[in-house]
Write a structure and sequence with these properties.
The complex is a heterodimer of chains A (100) and B (289). Helices cover 39% and strands 26% of the residues of chain A. Chain A has three helices and six strands; from the N terminus they run ββββαβααβ. Residues 1-6 of chain A have low confidence and may be disordered. In chain A, helix 2 crosses helix 3. Chain A has helices at residues 45-56, 61-71, 78-93, and strands at 14-17, 21-26, 29-34, 40-44, 59-60, 97-99. Chain B has two domains: 4-97, no CATH class; 101-288, no CATH class. Chain B starts with a strand and ends with a helix. Classes of the chains: A alpha+beta (100), B alpha+beta (289). The A-B interface holds A 22, 24-27, 29-31, 33, 35, 38, 40, 42-44, 48 and B 232-235, 237-238, 241, 247-248, 251-252, 255-256, 259, 262-263.
């Protein structure tokens, strides 16, 4: 069984949007369509923020955590990291993101 | 009555209707005055029929049957529902075949070159609101099928009769005493229905497309405080998506078009309890544009 660790400590994977993803973001929320699945999703809060960041350029989980801390004006504590890691996992399961 | 062929030009579509039901033929003249073509076209987009049922049902509790290119997609209905059957059937046929458009189950009305789309589930009051507003300064593009053209994102008019039901019929009769209605038909699946003839100005301008400018989700309630409130665009996208009947067919292209529409529109929810409140709110929208 293949088990992927999502953004754990020492994870240097580079996260990016899958090429078949179409998205728009407005005011902290986003809508996404995947050619791969044919599904349309509504994203809010952290998930929407991750999508917008990775829509600009691929990033590692650590870079995302630093950017989140700056954007949200929070210290880069484990709570932020956990939330990011959870959202990355969900977005990966939805086939919107890929790690390389 | 022997079968009559009626050729109509309805916006971008050429329709040939075959009917042996006198009330359907006279109803077409009532609701589509001046829109019959004198000659049968060499090509028509849609060939539909509303005719008396076969066999005993031709005479005993007579029924009408709708057909599209000879295929009968629906069960027969009582003969007196023939005219609304034509409207419902044509909606179904257009919505299932004319996929050069993105369809949204919504009213579409225009003022100052911008279209307000009024999406909503059955019972939300969008047809009633559409019927009222097109008699107060707004142009009718569509009652139930808002058609957005893929090539340029423009809303394409049909200017067809507005389907009203139950209490809405009386409300619009009172608001617009000169309005022309088809005979009321009772005991349909929607209750009592009547078709409201579109305003002449809307018909005269049926070839004028316009860009979407607002999306307004209407909600009538007797106890509602009038309220026009912004809806976040991502939420509006999902709400419109639920009413976009052929969105899935178009995949990414449908997503991009709908996103472009949302991008270019102010999005609102609107609750109201009487027409004057609606007129004020929509006047304000148009004037602020």
């Amino acid at each position: 069984m293949h088990v992927e660790t999502v953004g754990g400590e020492g994870d240097t994977s580079i996260w990016g949007l899958r090429p078949e993803v179409h998205w728009r973001a407005w005011d902290g929320a986003a809508v996404v369509y995947s050619d791969a699945t044919g599904n349309t999703h509504y994203l809010a809060d952290v998930a929407a923020w991750i999508l917008e960041q990775l829509g600009k350029r691929p990033m590692t989980a650590a870079e995302l955590q630093t950017a989140a801390a700056e954007a949200l004006e929070l210290p880069p504590e484990q709570g932020v990291a956990d939330s990011l890691h959870a959202s990355l996992g969900v977005l990966q399961d939805l086939k919107l993101l890929a790690a390389s | 009555m022997s079968r009559e062929q009626i050729s109509l030009r309805l916006g971008p579509f050429s329709v040939v209707l075959t009917t042996d039901i006198t009330e359907v033929s006279s109803g077409i003249d009532l609701l589509y005055p001046g829109r019959r073509l004198d000659e049968m076209p060499a090509f028509a987009d849609f060939h539909v029929g509303v005719n008396r049922a076969h066999g005993p049902r031709r005479w005993i509790r007579p029924q009408a049957i709708f057909d599209f290119d000879g295929y009968e997609p629906f069960k027969p209905l009582p003969l007196d529902q023939g005219l609304p059957m034509f409207e419902w059937g044509l909606n179904n046929v257009i919505g299932n075949t004319a996929h050069q458009y993105l369809f949204i189950h919504a009213g579409a009305i225009e003022r100052n070159g911008k279209v307000a789309l009024l999406p909503g589930e059955p019972g939300a009051g969008k047809s009633t609101l559409t019927a009222a507003l097109v008699h107060r300064g707004w142009r009718l593009l569509s009652d139930e099928l808002a058609m957005i053209r893929f090539e340029d994102g423009q809303v394409v008019p049909l200017a067809r009769p507005i389907n009203l039901k139950n209490a809405s019929i009386g409300l619009i009769r009172a608001l617009v005493p000169e309005a022309v209605f088809s005979p009321e038909v009772t005991d349909t699946v929607k209750g009592t229905v009547a078709l409201l003839r579109p305003p002449a100005d809307s018909v005269a301008r049926v070839n004028e497309t316009a860009r979407p400018g607002w999306i307004v989700f209407p909600s009538w309630r007797a106890d509602a405080e009038p309220r026009l409130e912004p809806v976040p665009k991502a939420e509006a996208f999902i709400s419109v998506l639920r009413n976009a009947t052929n969105y899935d067919l178009h995949e990414a292209r449908g997503f991009e078009l709908l996103a472009d529409v949302i991008e270019g529109c102010g999005c609102f929810s609107f609750s109201y309890r009487d027409f004057d409140e609606a007129f004020r709110a929509f006047d304000a929208l148009a004037e602020a544009a």
